[in-house]
Amino acid sequence: MSTGSPRVLPAGGDLTEAASVLRTGGLVAFPTETVYGLGANALDARAAARIFEAKARPSFDPLITHLADAADLEALVGAVPADVAALAGRFWPGPLTLIVDRPEVIPSIVTSGLATMAVRVPDNEYARRLIATAGVPVAAPSANRFGQLSPTRAEHVVRGLGGAVDVVLDGGPTRCGIESTIVDARGDRPVVLRLGALPVEELEKVTGPVTVRQGSSGQPVAPGTLAAHYAPRTPLRLRDAGALPAQDGVRCGYLAFRDRPADGWAAVEVLSATGDLTEAASRLFDALHRLDAAGVTEIIAEPVPESGVGRAVNDRLRRAAATWHVTN
Ligand code: TXA
Ligand code: MG
């Protein structure tokens, strides 16, 4: 754990200093529409190495490169396959990460040695202004320590990474609250490598049928999508269809989709009282951060309906629960 604390600056203020920290090899955490990113100059191998160190991230887990504008893609990588161009044209800026060939200028540490690179244009004006002002592509994973909950507020970043990051731009809570959807659209039929904030149904309107091929265990398809991932410190268990599990006198937390459970829980979070999946996704990590801080010994989480962005919510819950099964 790093000691010290980062400089926290308002994302709506003057971004020249943060941009210069980025350009000169420092680490700047910034808001995107999905989660906060931990940014470094993607052209600078040493800066990228600092990301892996700050997160305690294994070197086999490649980073996503962020651009300020969709038009910057061609300048960086040249022409891209038709489906990649179509998806970028339709959904950027937005919560969609696309796989392209890694250009020479991007050091291989950024892609963990892969010949491909993940890239996106975030739909957050502060993020895009920061990247544009820095004038370089920005490599940024989620700004949490490896395997832990993704940050949806600047406070989460400060608490999780502390002085390991130079500057944190505070842009308030993120809009989507769940990471981008990752798609490899270079072949005949696009492949979803990570479910995320952009629903599969939306992709299919542009490209026709896609394949969802997520790594769940063993060798993951997107190397970072390990089965045990996105986990609170508190053990988490998925509620199955049956009756509520007995609490055995221990202090349990409950993560509900829409209906508040009967009394008896030490802490309860409801993701969306109206049953809205987009709202539920936006509140997921925030709710888990709060349950984690509530001093409960176990969290029981209810799955949400398996459609739209609900698939990504359930994916994150299953991964959080997998950690519990591994360690208990
Ligand atoms: O919403 C997001 O995508 C956030 C914000 C900050 O943009 N970023 C994010 O980054 O979630 P991270 O590092 O937590 O997850 C990146 C994922 C990992 O699972 C990694 O394995 C995968 O992207 N990835 C990166 N490059 C890849 C590549 N060339 N091929 C396949 N998967 C790749
Ligand atoms: Mg992450």
UniProtKB/TrEMBL annotation:
GO terms for molecular function: ATP binding; double-stranded RNA binding; L-threonylcarbamoyladenylate synthase; tRNA binding. It catalyses: L-threonine + hydrogencarbonate + ATP = L-threonylcarbamoyladenylate + diphosphate + H2O. Gene3D superfamilies: DHBP synthase, Threonylcarbamoyl-AMP synthase, C-terminal domain. It is an enzyme of class 2 (transferase). Its main location: cytoplasm. ATP binds at residues 57, 116, 150, 194, 230. Belongs to the SUA5 family. This is Threonylcarbamoyl-AMP synthase. PANTHER family: SUA5, THREONYLCARBAMOYL-AMP SYNTHASE. InterPro entries: DHBP_synth_RibB-like_a/b_dom, Sua5-like_dom, Sua5/YwlC_C, Sua5_C, T(6)A37_SUA5, TC-AMP_synthase_SUA5. It comes from Micromonospora craniellae. GO terms for biological process: regulation of translational fidelity; tRNA processing. Residues 12-198 form the YrdC-like domain. NCBIfam families: L-threonylcarbamoyladenylate synthase (TIGR00057). Keywords: ATP-binding, Cytoplasm, Nucleotide-binding, Nucleotidyltransferase, Transferase, tRNA processing.
